[in-house]
Amino acid sequence: MQKKSLTALVRHHLNHARDASSGRSAETVYGGHAHVLRQTLIALRAGQHLGEHDNLAEATVQVLEGRVVLTSDGASWSGWRGDLITMPPGRNSLEAVEDAVILLTVAKLIAPAAS
Question: What is the chain's Cα-based Rg?
Answer without folding.
Answer: 14
